[in-house]
Specification:
Order of helices and strands: HEEHH
Number of helices: 3
Radius of gyration: 14 Å
Helix content: 25-40%
Length: 117
Protein backbone atom coordinates (compact mmCIF):
# COMPACT_ATOMS: atom_id res chain seq x y z
CA UNK A 1 0.00 0.00 0.00
CA UNK A 2 1.27 3.48 -0.84
CA UNK A 3 2.83 5.47 2.01
CA UNK A 4 1.21 8.67 0.72
CA UNK A 5 -2.37 7.59 1.37
CA UNK A 6 -4.51 9.65 3.69
CA UNK A 7 -5.84 7.85 6.74
CA UNK A 8 -9.34 7.70 5.23
CA UNK A 9 -8.02 6.31 1.92
CA UNK A 10 -5.94 3.75 3.82
CA UNK A 11 -9.13 2.64 5.65
CA UNK A 12 -10.94 2.46 2.29
CA UNK A 13 -8.20 0.24 0.82
CA UNK A 14 -8.28 -1.97 3.92
CA UNK A 15 -12.05 -2.31 3.52
CA UNK A 16 -11.75 -3.11 -0.22
CA UNK A 17 -9.29 -5.90 0.60
CA UNK A 18 -11.94 -7.55 2.83
CA UNK A 19 -14.36 -7.97 -0.09
CA UNK A 20 -14.62 -11.05 -2.25
CA UNK A 21 -12.64 -11.09 -5.50
CA UNK A 22 -14.42 -9.04 -8.15
CA UNK A 23 -13.66 -11.62 -10.85
CA UNK A 24 -13.94 -15.09 -9.32
CA UNK A 25 -15.78 -14.31 -6.07
CA UNK A 26 -13.42 -16.16 -3.72
CA UNK A 27 -13.47 -14.83 -0.17
CA UNK A 28 -10.44 -14.24 2.05
CA UNK A 29 -7.72 -13.77 -0.56
CA UNK A 30 -8.42 -10.30 -1.93
CA UNK A 31 -5.92 -7.52 -2.28
CA UNK A 32 -6.34 -4.00 -3.59
CA UNK A 33 -5.84 -3.77 -7.35
CA UNK A 34 -5.31 -0.37 -8.98
CA UNK A 35 -6.68 0.65 -12.36
CA UNK A 36 -4.22 0.06 -15.20
CA UNK A 37 -6.56 0.30 -18.15
CA UNK A 38 -6.53 2.18 -21.41
CA UNK A 39 -8.08 5.28 -19.84
CA UNK A 40 -5.22 5.59 -17.36
CA UNK A 41 -4.11 9.03 -18.49
CA UNK A 42 -7.58 10.38 -17.66
CA UNK A 43 -7.08 9.16 -14.09
CA UNK A 44 -3.55 10.58 -13.65
CA UNK A 45 -1.83 7.25 -14.29
CA UNK A 46 1.64 7.32 -15.78
CA UNK A 47 4.81 5.32 -15.89
CA UNK A 48 5.32 3.94 -12.38
CA UNK A 49 2.40 6.09 -11.18
CA UNK A 50 -0.80 4.38 -10.10
CA UNK A 51 -4.16 5.84 -11.01
CA UNK A 52 -6.25 7.75 -8.47
CA UNK A 53 -6.41 5.74 -5.23
CA UNK A 54 -10.23 5.59 -5.28
CA UNK A 55 -10.07 3.51 -8.49
CA UNK A 56 -9.39 0.20 -6.78
CA UNK A 57 -11.13 -3.16 -6.64
CA UNK A 58 -10.56 -6.42 -4.77
CA UNK A 59 -8.80 -9.09 -6.82
CA UNK A 60 -7.51 -12.33 -5.31
CA UNK A 61 -3.83 -12.98 -4.76
CA UNK A 62 -1.80 -15.98 -5.82
CA UNK A 63 -2.08 -19.09 -3.66
CA UNK A 64 -0.89 -22.71 -4.00
CA UNK A 65 -1.74 -24.04 -7.47
CA UNK A 66 -3.56 -20.81 -8.44
CA UNK A 67 -2.08 -17.72 -10.07
CA UNK A 68 -4.80 -15.45 -8.66
CA UNK A 69 -6.98 -12.95 -10.50
CA UNK A 70 -4.77 -9.96 -9.61
CA UNK A 71 -1.78 -11.47 -11.44
CA UNK A 72 -4.01 -12.72 -14.27
CA UNK A 73 -5.46 -9.23 -14.65
CA UNK A 74 -1.98 -7.68 -14.73
CA UNK A 75 -1.06 -10.16 -17.48
CA UNK A 76 -4.28 -9.51 -19.49
CA UNK A 77 -5.49 -13.08 -18.97
CA UNK A 78 -9.04 -12.43 -17.74
CA UNK A 79 -10.56 -11.44 -21.06
CA UNK A 80 -11.72 -14.09 -23.51
CA UNK A 81 -10.83 -12.02 -26.58
CA UNK A 82 -7.95 -13.39 -28.64
CA UNK A 83 -6.81 -10.03 -29.99
CA UNK A 84 -4.37 -8.38 -27.55
CA UNK A 85 -5.83 -4.89 -28.00
CA UNK A 86 -9.39 -6.13 -27.53
CA UNK A 87 -8.32 -7.92 -24.33
CA UNK A 88 -6.96 -4.63 -22.98
CA UNK A 89 -10.19 -2.80 -23.84
CA UNK A 90 -12.33 -5.58 -22.36
CA UNK A 91 -10.34 -5.73 -19.12
CA UNK A 92 -10.28 -1.95 -18.82
CA UNK A 93 -14.06 -1.79 -19.10
CA UNK A 94 -14.43 -4.76 -16.72
CA UNK A 95 -12.29 -3.01 -14.14
CA UNK A 96 -14.19 0.28 -14.38
CA UNK A 97 -17.45 -1.65 -13.95
CA UNK A 98 -16.04 -3.26 -10.79
CA UNK A 99 -14.89 0.15 -9.55
CA UNK A 100 -18.46 1.38 -9.94
CA UNK A 101 -19.86 -1.58 -8.02
CA UNK A 102 -17.29 -1.13 -5.26
CA UNK A 103 -18.02 2.59 -4.94
CA UNK A 104 -21.79 1.98 -4.88
CA UNK A 105 -21.38 -0.58 -2.09
CA UNK A 106 -19.09 1.77 -0.15
CA UNK A 107 -21.65 4.57 -0.48
CA UNK A 108 -24.53 2.32 0.63
CA UNK A 109 -22.53 1.29 3.68
CA UNK A 110 -21.78 4.91 4.54
CA UNK A 111 -18.05 4.70 3.82
CA UNK A 112 -18.34 7.44 1.23
CA UNK A 113 -20.43 10.45 2.17
CA UNK A 114 -21.01 13.54 0.00
CA UNK A 115 -17.52 14.33 -1.18
CA UNK A 116 -15.74 12.67 1.74
CA UNK A 117 -14.12 9.32 2.04
Amino acid sequence: MSKNLTASMRRYHEWVSTLSCSYCGIVGFSQVAHYQGIRGDAFKRGLSIKANDILVVPLCCARPNEKGCHAKFDDNELSEFEDRYMRKIDQSEMFLYWVGLTLILAHRLGLIVEGKL
